[in-house]
Structures are given as C-alpha cells and as structure tokens.
Amino acid sequence: MEYKHLIVRFAPKTLTLRECTLLPFVDASVNGIRITWDKDFLRRACEQDQDPRDVYGFIVLASLGIAVTGVHDNDESQLAVTAFSRGDFDDLLPASAPYKM
How confident is the model at residue 23 (pLDDT cuts 50, 70, 90)? Predict the structure, then answer.
C-alpha cells in the first residue's frame, strides 16, 4: 500500500505487516530521534545502535529495526527510512561491512 509519505508492505502468504518505509521529508521519529533527513539523524541513529552495517547501500541499524538509504551518500532520489521485521537482515549482516560516518 502506498501513501503520500509512506509505503506499507505485507507478507504475501500471511498478509501480516512486513515493513513500513517513510518517504522523504515526512515528519517522524525513530526511538526518540527525529528524522531530519540528513547526516545528523544518521549519526544520532548510529550512535544509538552502536553497530551500523552497510548492506548493499542500505545502512542497517538492526537494534533499532531500521534501514536508511540516500542520507549517507547524499542521493536525494534514494531517501528513505524503512522499519523492518525482526530477522529480515540477519542472513546479510555477518558478511556486511561496518558503516563508519
């Protein structure tokens, strides 16, 4: 389901919520951190997570349950913050590189 400022995805077999993607410049926060759509937000989220990983161009903050794109590389066309289901990145994290600001 796609709305003006977010996309909601469901698992096809169970129809349970899988993830929610916030689109650019929506006013929102994650775990008390206001999403400012810039590197300050990413820095604060990385500090809180303490183990950010670069997974195919997404900065995955597993302890917060989010993936961020477009912020770290200044690519406004890719700006998004996705809240994902627990375990979604577990297979990819061991081979991923730590993300350094």
Answer: very high
